[in-house]
Amino acid sequence: MRHTSSLIAMLCAALLALFVSACGGGGGGGSGGSGGSAASNASSSTSTGPTVTNSTPSPQAVAANALRVTVDSGVSNVPNMPFVSLTICAPGTAQCQTIDHVLVDTGSWGVRIFASQLPASMTLPQQKNPSGNPVAECMQFFNGYTWGPVKLADLQIAGEKAASLPVQVIDPDYASLPADCASVGVGRNTPAMLQANGILGIGVFKHDCGANCVTQALPGTYYGCNGTACSSIALAEELQVANPIPYFATDNNGSLLNLPAVSGGAQSVTGELVFGIGTQSNNTLGSAQVIGVSPSTGTFTTVHNSTTYSRSILDSGSTGLFFRSSALPVCASPNSAYYCPASTEQLSAMIQGVNGATSAVNFSVANASAVARSYAGDSALPLLAGPAFVTSSIFDWGLPFFYGRNVYAAIEQQSTPGGVGPYVAY
What we know:
disordered N terminus, 7% helix, mainly beta
C-alpha cells in the first residue's frame, strides 16, 4: 500500500473472474454480477499508466509441474494479487517472450496477454472462423472489458506446454471496437488498467464462453472481422480462448494453489501453483474437502448470517472477500467498496456444494481504513472484505480465503481422485 488517505486509490479490487452471464464456461452462464475495480470508474480507458517492461525472472520451477507464485506490489501497487511468469512462443518456433506479473485467476478460464508485451518480431497466427474471417474477442467484466484478436501460441509454464493454444491478445488498436463491447464499462486494455501484465485463467472450465457461444452469436463476446468491421459470431469451443491446463500432455486435470498463512499483513508472500490433481506426489488431494460446483456456472452456495448466497466462487483473482451484509458497516465514502467494523469481526459461513458436501469456514473482517494505516506498504492483506460490485446472490471468496490453504480447481470432464470435474476443494 502506498496511500493511506483513500482506499480507492490503493485497494483497486480487481474482481476479474466475475463475468457477465453470457461468458460462462462449460455449458451455460457465467459467474455473473461483479467485477472491475474500486478505483476504476474514476479512471479513463485511454490512460496508459506507468511504463511496464518485462524482465527475465529468476528460475521459478520447483518441480516440473510447479512454479512460484508471488503476491507483491505488482504493476500498480494493488494488494492481494498473485502473480506468475509464463512464456509465449510463436507455435513450433523458438521465438518466445517471457511475461512476468501475470495474474493467477482461478475464477476465469483462458490466457490473456497484451500485444504491447510481445516483441514486434513475433508473429502469432490469427485464429479464424469457418468463414475465414479473423476472430476477435470482447471479454467482459462487470464494469470493464478487454478487447483484441484471438491468436494461437505455444504456452510454456513451469515444465508444462500447451501447443497452439487460442489466447486473447489484448490490443485496443485492433480493428474497430464494437459499440456493444465498449458499452460495458472501462477498457482494461493496458497493463496499468488491468493492473497486471496478463491473466492466467485456470478455473474449472475449458473454454471462456463454452456452449453458449457455440449455438448463437452473443453480442459482446466473439466477433468475426472483415477489415476493420467486426460482427458478432457463434464460435465452436475448440476455437475459443482456452484454459491451458486441459491442453497439457500431463498434469491436465486441474491445479493446486498454495499460499502461506498471513497474520494482519505482509510486504510480500511466495507460494506455489501446481498443475494436476493426484498426478504427482506434490498434488495429492489428501483429505481436502471436495465441493461440487454447477457444471454450467461454476458456482456453489454459501450460507452466512442466515443469508444464502447461491452464486458463490473461489476466486484468486479477487483482492478481497466480497459479499453483501447488513451486519457489517460500510466504510465512509470514498471507501465504500469495503467494510469498516469498529474492531475485527470473527465470522463463519457454511459452504455447500452441488454434490451435497458441506464445509464450515471461519474468516475475519477488519476495518479497511485501519488496515490501510497499520499495514501501509504491504501487498498481502488477509482481512479485507466489502460489498463492492457484487449482487445479493454472490459470495466471492477472493484471495484472503487462499492464505494458509491448499486450494484445488478440478476442470470439467477431467477425471481426478476426487471424481470428475468440475469441483473446487480445499
